[in-house]
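Q: My labmate handed me this sequence with no annotations at all. I'd like to see what the chain might look like in three dimensions before we decide whether it's worth expressing. Could you predict it?
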Amino acid sequence: MDLYAVISEAIALVERDPRKHDVSTFIAESAEGVTGDHSKMVQVIMNLIDNAVKYSPGGGEVTITVEGDPTQDWLTLSVADNGLGLSEEDQGRLFTTFHRVKRDETMDIPGTGLGLYVAKTVVERMGGWISVSSVLDQGSTFSVTLPLMKVEERGPAVTRPGTSYLLPCRCRVPTYASVGRKR
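A: Here is what I predict for the chain of 183 residues:
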């Protein structure tokens, strides 16, 4: 699975106000060799980015980082924001069905409480896990850890200009209206 393509597609599908939110990506060159369903992974990453934007109503930076070590068996993709953050109680229940954070600041934020449950299910079916680290009123980081294929199972390396170490990429994401999606 080409994580660069997955992340690019997910970013393009998230609704946000480009005047308020910047999305930056840092993808390690060694972040190749993950197996999985492309469209399901787009759904997972899109959910994490969408939550980072929704729960950072004042705007700010959303940072997507992908790190892998060829000598290790795992790759970690993280989505971090500087938004509302989560209490320890909410962190413990986030990945369950229909859980919504109930605070005055979140009452007008749309959602069903299923996105993170679905993300957890998809990631676990790919052999990985998802976790959260958060400080109330300071932001959250969601991390997806996935198994890497053995080197001998990987195809030829995909090379992209400028990916010799970390590839910084600033992305402006269109609104739903500009990509033909409805709210």
